[in-house]
Amino acid sequence: MGAAPEGARDPQAAGRAVREMFTSIAPRYDLLNHVLSFNVDRLWWRRTARTFQEKLSRPDVRVLDLCCGTGDMTRALRRGSNASSKIVGADFSHAMLQRATEKTRRTSLRWLEADALRLPFSDNCFDLVTSAFGFRNLADYDAGLREIFRVLRPGGELGILDFSEPKGLMGTLYRVYFKHVLPAIGTWISGVKGPYAYLPASVERFPTPEEMIERMRRVGFQGPSWQRYTFGIAGLYRGTK
User: Fold this and answer.
1) Shortest CA distance to 136 belongs to which of 160, 120, 158, 112?
2) Architecture of domain 11-26+40-163+208-240 in CATH?
3) Measured in Å, how far apart are the chain's first and last C-alpha atoms?
4) What are the boundaries of each domain within the chain?
5) Residues 54, 159: contact at Cβ < 8 Å?
6) Which of 188, 175, 157 is nearest to 233 (CA)?
7) Average pLDDT in the 184-196 region?
């Protein structure tokens, strides 16, 4: 979640459209994610949380899960964190955050309605910022990276988990599923067409791993990298301030 897709002619209007689109599927968002990914999404969240285990295990670590949706990545981070850690999930969809709150009533997780391009945090205040399958919806990827860089402490880490387009035979199968099968199933289960036609388009528009790594480097992240998940269907971008 976050804002409008990069390159939108009217970012504010497009941002409202994206917010309304995700709000419309919030009640069945989790079910659809699990069904459409064959439950692989759960493995991706856990793997990402394990990647940052050393950081999460530190006392009083401060973590921001950006574009958190209904909070599954946030919950995975919490399970692997130190008891004294402070974890905030932020998203600009009120409906998604309501679902996140319902799922985590007995935890210390905090939820905040906020735009990823205008975060209400001071400079240098988080040790780790993550984003799972939401960063590609931002109106301006470079501005989003700069905002994340701003709120990270020196030595803090970034982890962006998002879709990519695999190559070869797997890429061909993936594109058939993503462009034709997934939108049909998503529309059938949710009763809403827009989001599942939008999803493959947003992945096509997202920078390649090489382009994203270069964008991260230009913003100032040290050692930017991309770790491929499940044949390159998704992957984790990492960088250090």
Assistant:
1) 160
2) 3-Layer(aba) Sandwich (3.40)
3) 23
4) 11-26+40-163+208-240
5) no
6) 175
7) 71
